[in-house]
Write a structure and sequence with these properties.
Order of helices and strands: HEEHEHEEEHEHHHHHEHHHHHH
Radius of gyration: 30 Å
Largest sheet: 4 strands, parallel
Strand order of the largest sheet: 6-3-7-8
Number of strands: 8
Shape: globular
Distance between the termini: 115 Å
Structural class: alpha/beta
Oligomer: single chain
Number of helices: 15
């Protein structure tokens, strides 16, 4: 009678001890993993955030984007950086480049930077390039204390990285592109190619039909209809695979490719790339033409798709990389975009009230006038 109860008591004690040990191990393990989680959360740097931490969705056409709140608390002030003052703006034809060049010239004057300017002996509106000697036809200063060029933001007839590196080494490179459908039409009217077709209801449509008929004979026409690709030295006759490989190489050389259709968004990315202030990217539209032009038809779009195939590939490629950069923006992109527009509006209101202020005079000056001011200033204090 005594033996049985003692065995039962012993069995209960062993079970209690086992439960206690298991519970203790579980509790200790939970504390350990909670500790590791806290450490990992503290060690996530804004630059290390990946898709694992942030879920981003982008509209395929690049018209909208959204980010979770996990990304929005990371503002530009959370990371310090030094403003870049050496840069090259590759200014294509009819892409809003004059507005950006004006902005950059004002930045250069504000910070006493040395601009590479066009040789005044030439009457061309762009800087010519000697590809054999890798030399640009700019103003060269023959003096012992010349500090060197720090930026270039004028038209060059062709992009050549080696020539540009010799002029401004260790610079940031950026450019802006535009939809070939609107770009080709803008070039057509700006170049006054409608002069012989002015009596027709739609001169541009007639011109495109002529291009379709003559492109196989006059191959220079394809260089005109693919001017972005030609400007960057890309082969307009390359197949899709070769074109994409060339675009990947070009993308590796450029720090930023902006889009005219999203001008404010582009400037926000430029500010981030260059580590500048909002006041540095205030702009005044230059050379904006509002003359009536017949609307684009599906037939015209089909023709442009055929004759501007290389430029359409280029634009599609950089449209994609542009919105990828927006999605991976280090900060609150929507807030910075709103801030830019607020600063822009304030500058506009200010200059409407105070027309003779130096800031407003320079802001509203065309790139041609600013270029003359920069030239005169540099001639005074250089050498």
């Amino acid at each position: 009678m005594i033996t049985t109860p003692s065995k039962v008591t012993c069995g209960c004690s062993r079970a209690s001890i086992l439960y206690f040990v298991v519970g203790l191990v579980c509790f200790t393990t939970a504390l350990y993993w909670n500790h590791l989680t806290r450490i990992s959360q503290r060690n996530i740097h804004p630059g290390h955030l990946t898709e694992k931490h942030i879920k981003t969705s982008i509209n395929g056409k690049g018209k909208s984007y959204s980010k979770t709140s996990a990304h929005r608390h990371i503002t530009s002030s959370s990371r310090s950086c030094k403003p870049f003052t050496k840069f090259v703006f590759i200014k294509p034809y009819k892409t809003g480049g004059s507005t950006i060049s004006s902005l950059l010239l004002r930045f250069g004057m504000k910070n006493k930077l040395v601009a590479a300017l066009k040789n005044e002996s030439r009457e061309d509106y762009y800087i010519r390039l000697n590809r054999k000697k890798h030399r640009l036809e700019i103003i060269y200063y023959n003096c012992s204390n010349f500090p060197g060029y720090e930026y270039l933001c004028l038209h060059i007839d062709m992009y050549d990285r080696l020539s540009l590196e010799r002029i401004i080494p260790n610079a940031k490179y950026f450019t802006i592109v535009r939809s070939p459908y609107t770009h080709l039409k803008s070039k057509f009217y700006y170049d006054r190619r409608d002069m012989n077709l002015v009596m027709l209801p739609d001169p541009f449509a007639r011109y495109l039909r002529d291009i379709m008929e003559n492109a196989k004979v006059d191959k220079l026409l394809l260089h005109w209809t693919n001017s972005f690709s030609t400007h960057f030295g890309l082969d307009v006759y390359a197949n899709k695979t070769s074109s994409l490989a060339a675009l990947e190489r070009l993308n590796g050389e450029l720090d930023l490719v902006m889009l005219l259709e999203y001008f404010d968004e582009s400037l926000v990315l430029l500010k981030k790339t260059m580590c500048w202030d909002f006041e540095d990217i205030i702009y005044h539209p230059c050379k904006v033409h509002t003359e009536y032009q017949p609307p684009m038809t599906d037939r015209l779009r089909d023709i442009i798709t055929k004759v501007s195939r290389a430029d359409i590939r280029l634009y599609s490629f950089f449209n994609k990389t542009f919105w990828e950069r927006v999605a991976n923006y280090d900060g609150d992109f929507e807030a910075d975009l709103a801030k830019l527009r607020s600063v822009q509006k304030a500058a506009k209101v200010r200059c409407q009230k105070i027309q003779d202020h130096e800031f407003c005079q320079k802001l509203q000056s065309d790139v041609f006038d600013l270029n003359k001011i920069v030239y005169e200033e540099q001639m005074k204090w250089l050498c």
